[in-house]
């Protein structure tokens, strides 16, 4: 069954997104003339700083985790303005497929590998977008030093914060990335439309699970890597508990160490394998293969014996645009009886066609590229 998104409001929202894409982000001459009279734009970033960016904003450097900045620019039709990216985005095949400009941009390093400030300055960007991963004071201080060094070069920096690094993670913090990008480039209405198109799909999951009483909530584990699960302080846990209405059996924290013995003791009803280290096919788990963990030792795990394991694509588990697909997959694994009328594969393809304006062939390729396997995979 196809999910019904065909109410009048949703059609208008999706039509506007596709219309903006078709136009390639172009404005009429009158609009351009008006914009040129405004010599700068001021935005409040997620460090609560007022950042002034000179207009026109034509050259942009993006350093981010979730991909919301570059993907929003792609959907606004202005991704060709990206001239520099962090080394993570530069090597990430799925994101390069969605945002072709990334493949042409200069790799300027990252907070973790070291930023090439000389190369960054040579790009002469009008603005740098920097997403901060600040789970510790040390990491926050590291990013603060980077921001200062970039601003000392005369380049404004708009700081965004990873959605998992807020006291109470939620998706609104992620969608704020889209809104701020819209503010910088003058695409406020398009940003609202894009957020609405994503939220409409999130709401589908929320509506189907909201009436589950506490005693009937399923227990789940968010398996992130061979050594870690996602704790209750992560935005992924928020998705599980507040949208899907299930329990996260992991403890406090973002990344929680895990072992085979601990997994057996927790014995979750459902196992959600996130694509942090790449795609892990559930068939390997059911077959008891060695893939990070020795899944043969876990064959009696309730989630495995009852075939309630789902693997998410490399970007689907993040608080990003494809998260709408990931949430649906998670919910169908946790509460299969409530989503058995939905053809998940078809909905995934329809998502790329409607939100990204892709052809069916392009949508199939995007889905395939989500099944990215890192060099280390889950065998570390």
Entry keywords:
single chain, 380 residues, Rossmann fold, 2 domains, five-stranded parallel sheet, four-stranded parallel sheet, 17 strands
Describe the structure.
The strands form 6 sheets. A 5-stranded parallel beta sheet has the order 5-4-3-8-9, with helices on both faces. Strands 12-10-14-17 form a 4-stranded parallel beta sheet. A two-stranded antiparallel sheet has the order 1-2. The protein has 2 domains: 38-186, Rossmann fold; 212-369, 3-Layer(aba) Sandwich (Rossmann fold). A hairpin with a 1-residue loop joins strand 15 (290-291) and strand 16 (293-294). It starts with 7 loop residues before the first helix and ends in an 11-residue tail after the last helix. It has 380 residues and is of the alpha/beta class. Mean pLDDT is 88; it is low at 6-13. It has helices at residues 8-22, 29-37, 68-75, 87-91, 93-98, 101-104, 117-122, 137-152, 171-185, 188-209, 235-243, 260-266, 282-286, 302-305, 323-334, 344-355, 360-369; strands at 40-44, 50-54, 60-63, 82-85, 106-107, 109-110, 114-115, 127-132, 157-161, 219-223, 228-230, 247-248, 255-257, 270-273, 290-291, 293-294, 309-311. It is globular. It is 43% helix and 16% strand. It has 17 helices and 17 strands.
